[in-house]
Specification:
about 55% helix; Rossmann fold; 22 helices; 7 strands; mainly alpha; Fumarate Reductase Iron-sulfur Protein, Chain B, domain 2; four-stranded parallel β-sheet; 3 domains; binds iron/sulfur cluster; three-stranded parallel β-sheet
Length: about 425
């Protein structure tokens, strides 16, 4: 570990912007009330403003007269190795980078981005939790954090194609749309591959998968390493260019969508005529334009609700599309949880948290807020468009022995297709 490396990265990543952000903080505490980890555990260090305090201290101690005085007089202490170890836990094990805190801050402080900057310092100082680091290394070495090597990918496609009897084009030259799955879908929810292929084929989409851009998940983005984030982004972007597609569609993965749809433009070259969108957008477009027909009301019955993923709905803005689809499938049974849409509560498993064993107690504690929401609305089924959320829900339904069905949106659409 190098404390100086971490501090230099804080300064480099944030520059003067962090100063204006943190100087504006009035310590009102509203962000703490918005954070599911703070709400669920009451741990003071889990307050969002505390999670970014290392940035404030570093900036003040290096650049402000008052910060230097406080240091010289012993009122403040230099950032220590122990501080870095503590903050590594706060920003990786008790933060999903869900950005809800940023939404409620009356001063407009972009806490989510600042927390990502703290992660960048941790990554530079080699303080990424071991499980997350191992996943990054697997993705660098084998192309996938969950072991989706070339051979596994080929086997998976062959198996899904045969078992679900669905055509899954691979490396098709002349295709307009490149579809990129996440490793969670490929390894844990293979039915999603079949479902999305069925929908695209039914809509007459000219699409393909890529053997080189096999999966879209980006563990470099989770850990906060710009260098690794770019390596994983380039795997998708370069092969999209190689195939000559006009559009990349990210399937049910929120963090990957954030990395490719928004962050990529700030850290690497994205071809300017390449459209990047989410599968939820396509589903709603196909339904509203009549390109696919669904059995209306096929999910009427027990109450069905929708969990908004932080990166697809809150950040990505795909708020109405899943509701448009669910109102066709379950016009009488669809009910909203409260709060919802951009104000929704995170599932507790995003931002890499579900990959870190030590974070399990936090992850389960945060999910208890979702349980309360599900119970309040009387949900029998909860639907989502992010497979990372789906993994967290599936695991937590088992952990808490809940009587709730967890479903992916694309899967429900595929099940309701009229041939
Ligand atoms: S909500 Fe904003 S102003 Fe209030 S404590 Fe949090 S960061 Fe500071
Ligand atoms: S980004 Fe989300 S999880 Fe992280 S501190 Fe803010 S509200 Fe909490």
């Amino acid at each position: 570990m190098s404390t100086q490396t971490a501090l230099n990265t804080f300064v480099k990543e944030t520059g003067g912007w962090v100063a204006s952000q943190l100087e504006a903080c009035t310590r009102c505490g509203l962000c703490a009330e918005a954070c599911h980890f703070y709400q669920a555990t009451g741990v003071p260090e889990y307050a969002p403003v505390w999670k970014v305090d290392l940035l404030r201290r570093t900036y003040q101690q290096r650049f402000t007269l008052s910060g230097k005085f406080k240091l010289a007089l012993g009122i403040d202490k230099p950032v220590s190795d122990q501080d870095l170890l503590d903050w590594s836990k706060y920003v990786y094990e008790a933060c999903t980078v869900c950005n809800k805190c940023s939404m409620v801050c009356p001063m407009g402080i972009d806490l989510g981005t600042l927390i990502h900057d703290v992660r960048a310092g941790m990554a530079a100082a080699d303080l990424v939790p071991a499980d997350l680091k191992a996943a990054v290394e697997l993705q660098l070495k084998e192309g996938s954090p969950l072991g989706v090597t070339d051979d596994v990918f080929d086997d998976r496609l062959e198996w899904v194609g045969d078992d679900w009897e669905v055509d899954m084009p691979l490396d098709k030259k002349g295709a307009e749309t490149l579809v990129v799955f996440s490793s969670i879908e490929i390894m844990k929810f293979p039915q999603n591959l079949a479902a999305i292929a069925e929908i695209l084929n039914a809509a007459g989409e000219n699409w393909t998968l890529s053997s080189k851009a096999r999966e879209v998940v980006n563990f470099g983005y989770y850990e906060g390493s710009r260098e690794n984030t770019v390596i994983f982004l380039r795997r998708i972007l370069d092969h999209a260019v190689e195939l000559g597609v006009k559009r990349v569609v990210v399937t049910e993965c929120g963090h990957a969508y954030d990395a490719l749809r928004w962050t990529a433009y700030n850290i690497t070259d994205v071809p300017k005529d390449l459209e990047i969108t989410h599968i939820t957008h396509l589903l709603a477009e196909y339904v509203s334009s009549g390109r696919i027909k669904l059995k209306e009301g096929s999910l009427n019955g027990g109450t069905i609700t929708f969990h908004d993923a932080c990166k697809i709905q809150r950040k990505g803005g795909h708020i109405q599309e899943p509701r448009q689809v669910l109102k066709v499938l379950a016009p009488d049974s669809f009910k909203e949880m409260t709060p919802n849409k951009e104000e929704a509560i995170c599932c507790g498993g995003g931002g890499g948290v579900i990959a870190i064993k030590e974070a399990d107690p936090n992850r389960y504690a945060a999910f208890e807020l979702k349980i309360e929401q599900l119970e309040n609305v009387g949900a029998k089924t909860v639907v989502m468009a992010c497979s990372n959320c789906r993994l967290q829900f599936t695991d937590c339904v088992q952990h808490f022995d809940l009587d709730v069905k967890v479903a992916g949106l694309a899967q429900l659409v595929a099940d309701a297709l009229i041939e």
